[in-house]
């Protein structure tokens, strides 16, 4: 089966590690495959337990877009549900936990519900929604389809040996690891921003909470970079968690990072692991993006390639097929650990998260084909990712949008703070919905628990036609925001000027202390009237760093001078009337909530409509 084949790879090639490079060692791919070699060598080492397999996890419909009053939730989660059509309320058939799970909805669910109902199709639905929010690699489907349909994929060998824990995806692994390492209400440290679904992975079943290690978007000094994770920040978060009475059991380390696309060096990872050892924390190392490094100058090193780990019994390494092999939906995740007790405990949960035997077999055959992986798939995938990344960064530069220039991942972490009327997560959500109205889905920063509003993740690993149309729609959305902001700024300035003139007439030389609101706006350099995809030259030069650490940073801060209350209310009223907020948020959506709160909501809506 899957893990048995990995062991066979090691036994049949004792002098050459799996995935030995067959091309120049100065390219990115050998660097990435060296890390992959380490994890496969470790995965093929004998373990103490086999993993049962069973039926794949059932597919469920997204939960209804509603949050009941009795279900504690964060403000941003409530905001994401305001446009839902129904309020399902409390079911008498379910437990409190069951109702909470049923009614839970992520911050981005609204957008993806609309996307699945209105997907872009070149011929059948050309005005449908382009998905640039889901982190999937769609650049090499042709290569995978050809390999996955070869005859050796269709023959099943009944003899199998399982050496590592295999489950149906890394989400199941996160959930299971949290269950066996933590008790309910225990905590796990995790740096922010991070892939937000991990919150549900560790909480819905296990009742484990994540304690955030907030990273600053601004460099803090010499040698620092935006969103820079350091041991000092981990220590500070640990002290804060202890002061709040939390029992911290583990720390999550994602390398390469999602959504930042940072690749941490062996020295950095060693420092993080030593921090975990000092505090007797389990280190859950997520290396699911290990083969997505596409820049020639960067090398990925798996922690399993280290000569020794600071605390092997508390270091657990996760990896899956979905990202590195462009197989989103295949649901195959693995975890390697030297901890016998952990492996045995995960084995017990394997019956709920098993991978069907035929799928394990196909994945094993695929991983054994070193010639195809090193000679065909990885080099071609790297070239296609480089071209797509060049195109996307070129477009962002033409828009004047700052972003992190990083060497890995399927996405770019872009700074759209200058398009927010004010620095708030409510404004960020409004901008995200503006993109959705223009039929393109992105991922906003609050979905990744980013501490600073205005950051968005944009996925670039898609076909050129989709990228072209998606960027055209992003451009039009930003033009709309830019135009509305300029109009609002002009109106506010005129109003303030009239007030100032009136005061001079009545009071003589009295100085006006109410200055107009100043909102910076950036004129966009391109303006296309047609949405037909244009032929683009993919030989776009690489993004030119404007500051250190390849962080392309423009002036994103908005100045907010003091204003009169009437002026602010007027600006807010105009903003509401120029959006679809009133149409989406009707009192009927809150019919099942507290009657007193509903009355307040109706009163506020009536005032906003005036």
TrEMBL record:
Ranges where the record places region Disordered: 485-542
Biological process according to GO: amino acid metabolic process
Pfam family, one: Aminotran_1_2
Keywords: Pyridoxal phosphate
GO molecular function: pyridoxal phosphate binding; transaminase activity
Record domain Aminotransferase class I/classII large: where: 163-463
Compositional bias (Basic and acidic residues): 497-515, 528-539
Record keyword Nuclease present: no
Keyword presence, Secreted: no
Protein family: Belongs to the class-I pyridoxal-phosphate-dependent aminotransferase family.
Protein name: 1-aminocyclopropane-1-carboxylate synthase-like protein 1
């Amino acid at each position: 089966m899957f893990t048995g084949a990995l062991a066979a790879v090691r036994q049949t090639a004792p002098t050459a590690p799996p995935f030995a490079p067959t091309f120049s060692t100065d390219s990115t791919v050998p660097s990435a495959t060296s890390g992959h070699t380490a994890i496969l060598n470790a995965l093929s080492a004998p373990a103490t337990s086999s993993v049962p397999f069973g039926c794949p996890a059932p597919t469920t419909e997204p939960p209804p877009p509603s949050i009941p009053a009795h279900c504690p939730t964060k403000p941003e989660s409530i905001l994401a549900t305001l446009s839902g059509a129904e309020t399902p309320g409390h079911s008498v058939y379910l437990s409190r936990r069951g109702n909470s799970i049923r009614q839970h909805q992520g911050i981005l669910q609204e957008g993806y519900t609309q996307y699945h109902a209105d997907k872009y199709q070149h011929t059948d639905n050309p005005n449908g929604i382009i998905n640039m929010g889901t982190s999937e690699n769609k650049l090499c489907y042709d290569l995978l389809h050809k390999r996955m349909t070869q005859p050796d994929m269709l023959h099943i060998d009944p003899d199998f040996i399982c050496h590592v824990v295999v489950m149906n995806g890394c989400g199941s692994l996160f959930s299971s690891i949290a269950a066996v390492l933590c008790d309910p209400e225990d905590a796990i440290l995790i740096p922010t921003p991070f892939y937000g679904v991990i919150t549900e992975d560790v909480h819905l079943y296990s009742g484990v909470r994540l304690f955030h290690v907030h990273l600053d978007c601004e460099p803090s000094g010499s040698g620092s970079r935006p969103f820079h994770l350091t041991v000092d920040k981990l220590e500070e978060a640990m002290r804060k968690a202890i002061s709040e009475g939390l029992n911290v059991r583990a720390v999550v380390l994602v390398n390469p990072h999602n959504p930042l696309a940072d690749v941490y060096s062996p020295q950095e990872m060693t420092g993080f692991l030593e921090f975990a050892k000092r505090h007797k924390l389990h280190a859950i190392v997520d290396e699911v993006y290990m083969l997505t490094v596409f820049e020639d100058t960067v090398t990925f090193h798996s922690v399993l390639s280290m000569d020794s780990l600071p605390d092997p019994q508390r270091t657990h390494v996760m990896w899956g097929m979905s990202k590195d092999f462009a197989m989103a939906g295949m649901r195959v995740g693995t975890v390697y650990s030297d901890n016998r007790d952990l492996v045995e405990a995960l084995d017990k949960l394997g019956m709920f998260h098993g991978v069907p035997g035929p799928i394990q077999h196909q994945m094993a055959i695929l991983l054994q084909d070193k010639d195809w992986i090193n000679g065909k798939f990885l080099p071609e995938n790297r070239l296609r990712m480089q071209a797509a990344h060049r195109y996307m960064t070129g477009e962002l530069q033409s828009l004047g949008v700052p972003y992190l220039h990083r060497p890995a991942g399927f996405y770019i972490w872009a700074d759209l703070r200058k398009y927010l009327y004010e620095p708030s997560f409510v404004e960020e959500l409004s901008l995200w919905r503006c993109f959705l109205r223009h039929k393109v889905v992105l991922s906003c920063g609050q979905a990744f628990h980013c501490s600073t509003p205005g950051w968005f993740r944009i996925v670039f690993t898609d076909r050129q036609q989709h990228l072209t149309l998606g960027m055209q729609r992003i451009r039009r959305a930003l033009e709309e925001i830019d135009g509305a902001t300029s109009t609002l700024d002009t109106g506010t300035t005129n109003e303030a000027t009239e007030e100032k003139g009136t005061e001079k007439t009545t009071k003589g030389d009295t100085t006006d202390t109410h200055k107009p609101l100043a909102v910076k706006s950036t004129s966009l350099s391109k303006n296309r009237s047609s949405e037909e995809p244009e032929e683009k030259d993919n030989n776009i030069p690489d993004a030119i760093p404007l500051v250190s650490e390849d962080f392309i940073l423009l002036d994103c801060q908005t100045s907010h001078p003091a204003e009169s209350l009437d002026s602010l209310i007027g600006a807010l009223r105009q903003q509401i009337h120029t959006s679809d907020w009133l149409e989406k948020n009707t009192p009927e959506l809150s019919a099942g909530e507290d009657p007193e709160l509903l009355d307040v909501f109706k009163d506020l809506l009536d005032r906003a409509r005036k």
